[in-house]
Structures are given as structure tokens and as C-alpha cells.
Write a structure and sequence with these properties.
single chain, 145 residues, mainly alpha, 8 helices, 73% helix, globular
Length: 145
């Protein structure tokens, strides 16, 4: 069972592709369709906290060890809730027939959907759109010649 816990934890962290079959697809649909906006937001917050520990961005944040523990608990509680309450039947079938890889794949998609909602926010879009004022369009135009 410890190995399963570790694999499920990795499901939240990895971005490498994992392929699921029909049962994993059912679980993925359930997670995406039935998770709330707040749950998706919690997942994005946890991902952000995890990414904040990377040396290239850690100087830019003030996230403490207590924050890390807090969001790890939030993500763990969310994972347990989604698998054992919200999507229990698809989760059982996915694990039975496809194993932990189905869980990994389903949560990767949920993370991608949650991140997509984050990037759809107008304030986030405005920051990303601000890149335009610094682009050297003349150099970029040479790509189409």
C-alpha cells in the first residue's frame, strides 16, 4: 500500500505522459467534471507552492515550510476526497483494471485543466499579454521569410 501512496503522490507532481485506458478515461472525466472551481484552485495553489521550491524561482517567493505543509495537506485531502467520495466508482475500476498509472494520468489532466482555468483569468492574461511590448517583431518577421 505504501507503494500505491507514493505513486499517487507522484501523480500530482509529474508532467511526463501517462496513458490510461477506458477506466482511466472515465476517472479523468469524473475528476474534471465533478471537481469544483475551489478544488481546482486548491490544486493549482499546491502546484504553485511545490514549484516555488525550485532554485530558479524560490528567491521570488516568501513561501514558508509551514505553507508547504499546509498545501501538502490540502492536496492530500483533495486527492483522498476526489478518489474516495466524488469519483469512487471510476477510481476503483481504474485501479482494478489499469493500476496506479490511471490515477497518475487522471490527475495530470485535472492539473492541466486547473492550470488552464488559471491562465484564463483576465489578470493573468494581461501580464502574459504584456510580453508583446518587449517583442522584437522585426526579428520575428524574419521567421516567415
Amino acid at each position: 500500500m505504501k507503494k500505491f501512496h507514493a505513486l499517487v503522490a507522484v501523480a500530482f507532481m509529474t508532467m511526463s505522459p501517462a496513458f490510461a485506458g477506458v477506466y482511466g478515461d472515465d476517472l479523468t472525466r469524473c475528476l474534471v467534471d465533478k471537481s469544483t472551481t475551489d478544488e481546482k484552485s486548491s490544486l493549482v495553489q499546491w502546484i504553485f507552492v511545490a514549484m516555488s521550491r525550485h532554485p530558479s524561482v524560490s528567491p521570488m517567493t516568501k513561501i514558508t515550510t509551514d505553507d508547504v505543509d499546509k498545501y501538502n495537506k490540502v492536496a492530500a485531502d483533495l486527492l483522498v476526497h476526489l478518489l474516495t467520495e466524488t469519483c469512487v466508482d471510476p477510481a476503483k475500476k481504474a485501479i482494478k483494471y489499469e493500476g496506479a498509472a490511471a490515477i497518475q494520468s487522471a490527475f495530470q489532466v485535472l492539473g492541466q485543466v486547473a492550470a488552464g482555468e488559471l491562465f484564463a483569468n483576465p489578470e493573468v492574461g494581461a501580464v502574459m499579454g504584456g510580453l508583446d511590448k518587449f517583442l522584437d517583431t522585426k526579428k520575428l518577421e524574419t521567421l516567415s521569410q
